[in-house]
Automatic annotation (TrEMBL):
Entry protein name: Glucose-6-phosphate 1-dehydrogenase
Binding site for NADP(+): 67, 109-110, 174
Entry annotated with the keyword Magnesium: no
Gene Ontology CC terms: cytosol
Pathway where it operates: Carbohydrate degradation; pentose phosphate pathway; D-ribulose 5-phosphate from D-glucose 6-phosphate (oxidative stage): step 1/3
Glucose-6-phosphate dehydrogenase C-terminal domain residues: 215-510
Length: 512
């Protein structure tokens, strides 16, 4: 009997479970920093949601490593509470019972040889009893200064070495260093323990559905790409605004600041995806190669004092609540120069983008929480209307909303109903929540699953990291020589210098 044809008309193929290529094989995940906020709010719930969606194998094992003197049962209670509070999918007893049977906890310090020997024994026992097959990923949800000691312990205990039948991988959370030199040193330490194809650098923004949709928007549609260039695009604005302060992150944030925290990674990745050429395919090497070409083509303005801006939020009222200024936050030195707002102009020296400025901004205590990419088009070369007919007409724009309210908005001119010819801006909206019945998976779900599958396209490799630091380092050096950041009021959209930066080019920030 001949096999069924593999055509779109084949109902057997159409009914195939779309999850099949995305179900992980036997594997275990070890999380260092399991007691931290990221693990509780994101990692544990993501693992449960993957299991609840049928994307983890029955043999999956989760091992926590931490200083707390927990039994495995106590660890399971912590995971249970985190799942109940933060999971995206409903709680299912069958899913939980299957998942919890693979939980283990190892107590110890990062420098404790005995603890890592116990961890190695735990992993071996899971292979024998749970059927994880020698496949284990090690997730470093720890401060960057702890990376070297954990990596060396993994090497010393034999945990980093590939087993005869399985794989070993390491997951590293940003920041990937604090400048180019430290990023290169971190890579040297990682490379001594794991080969490049086993290193997964997490930038959770790349796991967001809307970020991935940039590629679908550009390359799956015919009518965007012909105008996606300097002939039609006036400029691009990439914004990541938060309406909160630093909270309890003083120990991490001070000395890092907005530029290192999100522009070096998140926003430069968004720039690369927006500006890149079409890859020959969407495998990891082709996608990364195009992003790297764009990052290598990014140039800084000659006068950084005019084309960058930085600020610190002051004390004041926001949302009807009196909030503290950055220098009044717990744990922040009174003379700190760390910026809570950063903005800069970048240019991309390619034929497609010659003369098109890319404006990036990120900050805390701003008007509202929003991340978006706004591609602002040039005005029509000729308008056959009276000036009064188009006085309320702005520039066309395509806005990709990354968060919240994920979707795409197109702004264009339309005639106002009535007897006069009056043209005014209107918008067309696409929202994920309205267009699809499926809920968007959380970014960490996609990324953890990709680690277990060994699927690397959404993970930046070392060259991307280094190119990003080469862009940012001169800005940070210039700021270090230029005194204190400007202050700005909470609930505003940043310091005056940020508006001046765009006004110098005859442009203005759009109001998200």
């Amino acid at each position: 009997m001949s096999s069924a044809p593999t055509t779109a008309a084949n109902p057997l193929r159409d009914r195939r479970d779309r999850r099949l290529p995305r179900i992980a094989g036997p594997a275990g995940l070890v999380i260092f920093g399991i007691t931290g906020d990221l693990a509780k709010r994101k990692l544990m719930p993501a693992i449960y949601d993957l299991a609840n969606r049928g994307l983890l194998p029955p043999s999956f094992a989760l091992t926590g490593f931490g200083r707390r003197k927990w039994s495995t049962a106590e660890f399971a209670e912590v995971v249970h509470d985190a799942v109940r509070e933060h999971a995206r999918t409903p709680f299912n007893e069958r899913t939980w019972d299957q998942l919890v049977s693979g939980f283990r906890f190892v107590q110890g310090e990062f420098g404790d040889d005995d603890a890592f020997d116990r961890l190695a024994q735990t992993v071996q026992t899971l292979d024998e009893q749970r059927g994880t097959g020698g496949n284990h990923a090690f997730y470093l949800s720890v401060p960057p200064d702890a990376f070297p000691v954990v990596l060396r312990q993994l090497a010393r205990s034999g945990l980093s070495g590939r087993s005869a039948e399985g794989w070993r991988r390491v997951v590293i959370e940003k920041p990937f260093g604090h400048d180019l030199a430290s990023a290169q040193e971190l890579d040297r330490v990682v490379s001594e323990v794991f080969p490049p194809d086993s290193v997964f650098r997490i930038d959770h923004y790349l796991g967001k559905e809307t970020v991935q949709n940039i590629l679908a928007l550009r390359f799956a549609n015919q009518f965007f790409e012909p105008v996606w260039n300097a002939h039609y695009v006036d400029h691009v604005q990439i914004t990541m605004a938060e309406d909160i302060g630093i909270g309890t992150r003083a120990g991490y944030y001070d000395g890092i600041g907005a530029a290192r925290d999100v522009i070096q990674n998140h926003l430069l990745q968004l720039l690369a995806l927006t500006a890149m050429e079409e890859p020959v395919s969407f495998d990891s090497d082709a996608l990364r190669a195009e992003k790297e070409k764009i990052l290598a083509a990014v140039t800084l303005p000659e006068d950084l004092s005019l084309h960058t801006a930085r600020g610190q939020y002051a004390a004041g009222w926001q949302g009807g609540v009196q909030v503290r200024g950055y220098l009044e936050e717990d744990g922040i030195p009174a003379d700190s120069n760390t910026e809570t707002y950063a903005a800069m102009r970048l240019d991309v020296d390619t034929r497609r983008w010659a003369g098109v400025p890319f404006y990036l901004r990120a900050g805390k205590r701003l008007g509202r929480r929003v991340t978006e990419i706004a591609v602002v088009f040039k005005r029509a070369p000729h308008l056959p209307f009276d000036l009064t007919d188009t006085r309320e007409l702005g520039q066309n724009a395509l806005v990709i909303r990354v968060q919240p309210d994920e979707g795409v908005t197109i702004r264009f001119g339309a005639k106002v109903p009535g007897t006069a010819m009056e043209v005014r801006d209107v918008t067309m909206d696409f929202g994920y929540g309205h267009a699809f019945t499926e809920n968007s998976p959380e970014a960490y779900e996609r990324l953890i699953l990709d680690v277990l599958l060994g699927d690397p396209p959404l993970f930046p490799r070392q060259k991307e990291v280094e190119l990003s630091w080469q862009i940012l380092d001169p800005v940070m050096e210039a700021w270090a020589r230029s005194g204190r950041p400007e202050t700005y009021m909470p609930g505003s959209w940043g310091p005056p210098g940020s508006n001046d930066m765009l006004a110098l080019d005859g442009r203005a920030w759009r109001r998200p």
